Amino acid sequence: MKSFLWTVGVVVFINLQLHAQNEVEHNNMQFIAAGKYLPLYSGNNNYKEIKAFYIDRYPVTNYEYSLFVRENPDWGKNQVKRLFSDKGYLKHWDDNHSFDNRLKDSPVVNISWFAAQKYCECQGKRLPTTDEWERVAAAGLKSADGSKERDFQQWVLKVTSSAQPKPIPAVGSTKQNFFGVWDMHGLVWEWTYDFNSSLSSGESRGDAGSGSNLFCGGGGAQAGDVENYPAFLRYALRSSLKATHVLQNLGFRCVSEVKVQTGRK
Predict the structure, then answer these.
(1) Residue 169 within a domain
(2) In which residue ranges of the chain is pLDDT below 50?
(3) For labelling alongside 209, which of 10, 85, 103, 163 has CA 20 to 30 A away?
(4) Residue 21 CA: distances (Å) to CA of 30, 180, 189, 232
(5) What does the pLDDT read at residue 23?
(6) Taking the CA of residue 97 as centre, how many other CA atoms within 13 Å lie in the half-sphere pointing to its CB?
């Protein structure tokens, strides 16, 4: 009996230590529990199950990206290979990798998919799948289903349809949603891992492990919410992109796996 209790105690101790380590490693990220959400192109309104993950609370900033470039000079403004980015990469930076100080805490833009994914990899993370990103973006201010919050939906429509402010405001300048994540709407567009397969019906986490459909346009399906104009715009943008493209209003954030069950449901 004592041996059994000792074993249980050791297992509990190890799990608590791993849990604590996991929390430290993700202290700038938000835990998103496993759950269902209704994709825009959902066929017969079929909800999709998404596994738990962590997501950055804010988009990656110019300052954060400058630290990455300092450690990885091959991804500098004038050093990046054209195989990985079109002309215009980091065009808002000067040749010495500095930028207007007002942009220090603004989302980094003019970034290709390859550059965004490489940044995430160097942080031990990856880009979110479209399903993961959209699950978080679907949250309102009061619930995980923002479609039921009329005022919130009107705000999303307004900021999505408005011209982008110049200079781009700092991260954290829009709204924090129900999950505790900032700037999902109204600041910049964001890359997703499977951006050009966003109309496919594969299970999101399964798609994350393979790039086989990365550059293929996804097949359309019946829209689950024909009034979700901002979501239509996001899907239209993604379907028009190539991995080397850079845009002055396209940034990114990272996600990471949940390696240890935290006990949260």
Answers:
(1) yes
(2) 4-24, 200-223, 262-265
(3) 85
(4) 15, 21, 32, 39
(5) 47
(6) 18
Tell me how crowded residue 205 is: count the other CB atoms within 10 A of its CB.
Answer: 16
> Is 262 within the bounds of a domain?
no
Residue 208 lies inside a defined structural domain of this protein: yes
- Host domain of residue 72: 28-257
Residue type at position 157? L
For the chain, the distance separating the N- and C-terminal CA atoms, rounded to the nearest angstrom, is 31
263/62 Cα distance (integer angstroms):
35
**Is residue 22 a part of any domain in this protein?**
no
Rg (the chain; Cα; Å):
20
What is the reported pLDDT for 47? Answer: 84
pLDDT of residue 37: 85
Instruction: Residue 250: give its domain's CATH number.
Output: 3.90.1580.10
Q: What digits encode the pLDDT tens for the residues 157-211?
A: 999 989 988 999 999 999 999 999 999 999 999 999 999 875 544 443 334 433 4
CA dist list (Å): 240 to 9, 97, 136, 201, 210: 54, 29, 22, 18, 20
Total-model pTM:
0.80
